[in-house]
Predict the 3D structure of the following.
Amino acid sequence: MTDDKDVLRDVWFGRIPTCFTLYQDEITEREAEPYYLLLPRVSYLTLVTDKVKKHFQKVMRQEDISEIWFEYEGTPLKWHYPIGLLFDLLASSSALPWNITVHFKSFPEKDLLHCPSKDAIEAHFMSCVKEADALKHKSQVINEMQKKDHKQLWMGLQNDRFDQFWAINRKLMEYPAEENGFRYIPFRIYQTTTERPFIQKLFRPVAADGQLHTLGDLLKEVCPSAIAPEDGEKKNQVMIHGIEPMLETPLQWLSEHLSYPDNFLHISIIPQPTD
Amino acid sequence: MNQRLFCLSSQWSWPVRGFRGHHGGGKSWSASSERGEGENPSGRKGNQVQATVLQPLRRAVAGVPAVTAPALVLISIPTAGVAPGLPPEEMERGAGASLPSRPADGTALASELVRGTRLAHLPSGFLSLATPESEQNSGLLPPPRHAVLTASQVWRNSPEEVKALGLCAPRRHLDTCLHLRPPALLLPPPVATGPPPPPHPPPRALPAAPSSPSVQRTQGWRAGAGRRRAGPEETTGWGPSSPRAAAAMPNSVLWAVDLFGKVYTLSTAGQYWELCRDSPLEFKRVSATTQCCWGIACDNQVYVFVCASDVPIRRREEAYENQRWNPVGGFCEKFLPSDRWQWSDVSGLQHRPLDGVALPSRHWEWESDWYVDENFGGEPTEKGGWTYAIDFPATYTRDKKWNSCVRRRRWIRYRRYKSRDTWAKIPSKEDPKQLPDPFNDLSVGGWEITDEPVGRLSVWAVSLQGKVWYREDVSHPNPEGSSWSLVDTPGEAVQISCGPHDLLWVTLWEGQALVREGINRNSPKGSSWSIVEPPASENGIVHVSVGVGVVWAITKDRKVWFRRGVNSHNPCGTSWIEMVGDMMMVNVGLNDQVWGIGCEDRAVYFRQGVTQSELSGKTWKAIVASRESDRSHSGSSSSLLRGHGSAPLVPSAGCFFGDEVRGSGESCAPSDTDASLEADRPGPDQPVPAESVDGPRNPRDSLASGTGRTPELAVEVAGPATQTPGPEPRPGAASTPAELPWTNIDLKEPKRAPSHSAVSFPETTGLSSLGLLPLGLEEPYGADDHPLWAWVSGGGCAVEAHAVLKWFTVQSGLSPPVQTLSLSIMPAQTAAWRKQIFQQLTERTKRELEHFRHYEQAVEQSVWVKTGALQWWCDWKPHKWVDVRVALEQFTGLDGARDSILFIYYVVHEEKKYIHVFLNEVTVLVPVLNETKHSFALYTSERTRQRWPVHLAAATEQDMNDWLALLNLSCCESRRVHGRPSPQAIWSITCKGDIFVSEPSPDLEASEHMLPCDQMFWRQMGGHLRVVEANGRGVVWGIGYDHTAWVYTGGYGGGCFQGLASSTSNIYTQSDVKCVYIYENQRWNPVTGYSSRGLPTDRYMWSDASGLHECTKAGTKPPSLQWTWVSDWSVDFSVPGGTDQEGWQYASDFPASYHGYKTMKDFVRRRCWARKCKLVTSGPWLEVAPIALGDVSIIPESPSTDRSGHSIALWAVSDKGDVLCRLGVSELNPAGSSWLHVGTDQPFTSVSIGACHQVWAVARDGSAFYRGSVSPAQPAGDCWYHIPSPPKQRLKQVSVGQTSVYALDENESTTVPAQPSRAILRLRWSPAWRAESWLRPRLFSSWVGRSPSKCGDSRLCLHGQTPKWVPTLWALLSPGNLWYRQGVTPSYPQGSSWEHVSNNVCRVSVGPLDQVWIIANKVPGSHSLSRGTVCHRTGVQPRQPKGQGWDYGIGGGWDHITVRANATRALRSRSQETATGWSGEPGLPSTPSRVAGAPHEARGPVCC
């Protein structure tokens, strides 16, 4: 029998094979070889691309190097979105590896946040965790943690250490026995088709009648356009971590098992491939 | 004559003497139960109902000399005091009307009535009022004037008045007082406006017969009821009783009676009240224990509901056939004149012919015919079972001698109790004149007075006359008891409560409480009474309930009181504390948990926060669980006259009688529900009014469905075509005007009654409707379908302090009715969405990773270090705890495999040093909780050989659990052991009850290059067990210390392994109970006799069993921090050797063999005190209720046989010695379905089933048995074959593999010295060891171990504390000889002889490959810590099944091992290469030990 715990592992160890190519307009001293890497789905681009940066900097002149940023098929990649989300949202229908273009010039100020250091990523990550816990437990769990626990969460993510991360994170996934779930489910729904960055609303895991809310319930409530009509053709894929959970899946379970390390359930709504 | 009688019910078959009314009328109580709803389309009807009652009553009263009227309630009123001027008819009406008006109105009547009127408690809170006049007039009018109303009504109206009512005069007239239906039945009928109930299948046919020939059946008024309510003895068609209740029992259930007399149970695991189905009875009282429930039904008879169990209740009847030798005819039936009967009992004094032995009651049946017992003292006799002696009475021998003049043999016949899971009427065999009058109250308790958990019960009852009765000889094997005996009381009792232990409180008529003193094991009835005054003199006690050490009481003003300071020594307690809440009654259940029934809302409340330290709890919480039946009527969740919110609907006196005022012109009766149901439903001549169909809700639906009535209603609605089984026509429907039930609602429309006389008593009416029923009336159709309760009993309901109950939240409609924990694959696990996620994740990994594995990882694996501070039990002398810093370094190799090293940094002579352990070498991590330390031991194979683990302690439990979990995870990670253990896993258990599991490598049973078993890696499973047995198909069963049976759920983790180390599902709470024993020692001296002043050389006067450690009552702690006390100290009478009445055992000196009686030579004595403690943990285990087990064995399956799909044979021995066979066990349903009982003539202790269905067992007398003809088709086999034990040895355990049969004996001749010298003692018991109490048991066992049959010492030494109520346990734990059964062949499965294999064996497990593993008492050549070592027999081969030697594995401190699942054979080709890779995972070469640190010779304080 497969255990739910295995899902956590599968989610954590999800990898996206990626091919980094330097943008053609970048000035190099010699030709830049593409760089191949397995990116952890749950991590952040700027956190795991030190090697990429080094690789391309080697072929560049020092003065041409400024802040690195990534782009896929013309879309600048937001480093503060988890890698898996970026891939699902933008590239899930394309062939692997994922071809990412590396830029050092003309930082798209209006599209991307600057990422001066890993501290910025940590700050962003921790604020997400805190926001999620505010939704789940009125921040009670995260506030009771010590600083070193917070650090352990971050270090776990940074070093890709599942045990280290989950030793702490499991506390964030608990809920009182008398409840049937969290207060609210921390989720964000992303669509490529809209301008809006994402949808985030208060949504409880359990209905007033005690029924567990499902993924379908959530979408119906906050993003009805994502669901195909009863008899209609399926127009969209609802994707988390590269898979399409059934709409009957209880939201609470999803939140416990398919959340990203930032404790949010990042759901991508992407148009159904036409093939 | 100015006498009024009201018939309320036809339930009561109590002779009514002297019923002479002066009103004309017929002979029968012919009230109609038929009435049309159309009569009162608005639904606000009701006054008329009274007319129906009164009229026939009047008729009945006249000219019936001795009406044995089944059932009534009498209200007799003195007219003189009521309305002097009125004509009789009017007077009566007035009287009847005015009587109940709430007293505050100050009418003459009320005061007249109240003054000098005696108040009698009648069943279930009714009161009867008798006026002085009635007594004076008794010559003329024998029946006293009684008014009857519910207690609640009286109390509600005016507590002061009620108090004024007297409680004084003796109840001389109670024999003429008619009995009442319980108040349950007095509930005002519901408003009948809803649609007719939905059609239901017709009810089951119930034979109807009068309960006695002299009883005149009540017809009409309760015709339907009469039909339904045949006496239970006649209702043979009760059917298979209530399986649900039975199924719920193991979870432990709360019993309750609703206002309609229906009995419900609420499981601690459930969320719905379940109706005790198939019972035509209605009950007033129930008093539950875990195994049975006693009750008083509305027929005033006592019933017992013995919960079903697969083990039959059987009792052996014996008779002896005696013969005397005579020179002519040899042995024959010719006796000397002084001789005994030819057929006699064992003493010979009683004549006992075989055909004269009768079944005690109709609830028993014979199991077989008489047969001769051919066993004598465990050995088979020849010659027809005769035993010989010189003369009667003498010592009998099995062999005939030259001087054998007499002989006798024993005949045996078993009888079986058959009325289980059904209400069985307690038979009354006695002379009717001796019989108690009907019972008013009943209470069951006392099961903790003796040691047996479900043995003897104390059943106490109070009769209507206020007498207290005790039921003799009630026990599990004799559930009915034998007879009632009267216990004198200094006053008239009204209510009684008996606690599980020695508390017994009685409520007196006068409001005080009586407390029984002197209840103990020898006199369960107690010796004397003392009186406890009520909290306030003006408010007497009306109800008490007691637990183990608590007393709760209700006073007349319905206040709840808690008695402070109650315990065994002071059963009266010290003072009252008032608690919050107004309750009708309270009931104390198991663990002193408390339930109550709210005064206002009649809801069952649970007292939250009751713990041993805070017995009074914190707050009342209402149980909102709905009745199961309510859910089936989705549209009928209607209110029983209950408004929204918390509006009460207690039938109030005001309501009742106010109504009566207005309705009395015709007739008046408080209707009970049944009556109202009958009355409510449309009669044949009255069509259902359309309005009623349109009514928003039909309150009856919930009632009817709840009470199982609906079918009949449906039938009635459907018309006569679908006739109910009852043969009688429905009388009365036409003869009396159709009446409507009166209800609260009617108060609003008093004028509806045509001959209304409300004008006569305007104030009454006004007050009734306005003052007394202010609540909820405006909203009669409230949506709340809250059930109304009359009684609750928690005596069978075990609520754990931490347990999460589902009682307090309303469950959504889709929840399953009973949350039964099922072991078969959980639905959630199989949900499509889950499967899809698993599948998609696998696909995703494949898609995204398969072709890209050569890509570089973005994040380099790094080292992670966890550091902390622990204490370390240092390896060298002087051994002590030293503070150390520890660091765990986890690193990931290139292949992704992880490994870790644990560094322990210590300082010696100011020099920093460290030892380190590679976690891939760790073989086991054992938590070593003791009284003071949270510690754990870490073994590598080398340290296993040295018997000296790395022993670390953490400051807090949390800290230890964190480290333990992390280290375990690292060990498993480095060994790549994940998830649930394989079906072939080897399981073992330590003496602390911790469970370990090891994955067998193929080389473990290799013929050559066998994997040394000290290299096996053991990982811990959550949970707590004493015995575990497994089977190669993944079925694993366990037995707890308290003998609870558990089945493995397929999860892993639990206990201290949370988070990642634990599976998400399949982890459940598990608890275990055991006893701690200490000894009180005394020495005799000429001055004071026995005293606690010993000689200087003597042992401690309070000691452990060895006498070496002081163990005082106050100073003795639970065995470890996991355990908490759950009882107080009590004398243990069940010690081997017997005790006297006070529990003392005598001996000539310490320590010697103790006996249970005093002789001249005895100078010392001791007695054993026991205290229960409890542990609560969690693990992948689910309880297999309800039978407690002593041993279990699952068929080993060799890999060659493909049996998947077949059910798996599982045999067990219950804690009482019954042999059982589990049916329906399979991989998908490892818990199986039911037990099959295998009859034996004596209790058994051990059982084992071999691979070919060879079942061997060991009886308590030490002999072995082979069960013939066991096969899948005949799972229980056919008969036992007796196998003599090895000479002069008593066997205690047997294990059967593929063909090998091994047995263990108790070893009477243990070689260990009885007591070590003082010098050795001191040497061995250094303070360091004292601190190390976890080592203590095993240390001592090596030299204090004595023959278990002679003293209890050895078991105590082994285990520290061992549950003693189980005689099978300790024997298993002391070392004995291992025997191999020679000559076992398929054609002769019994074998020929026993061959000695080894001594010093504590437990043996023979596997499907005939491999032999044992727990050795002591491993030669190592430290005495090796006590309890896992050993593996080497050299076992087909031609040499006994093997050659032992290979020593993990230990000491192990108690149990099972290899019966491991059928993994070695693969010859790889045996060499992977000899060291234990888990079958190649690539994990076992590195040579790199344990640094202390030199070897410095280790180990124990010299052997």
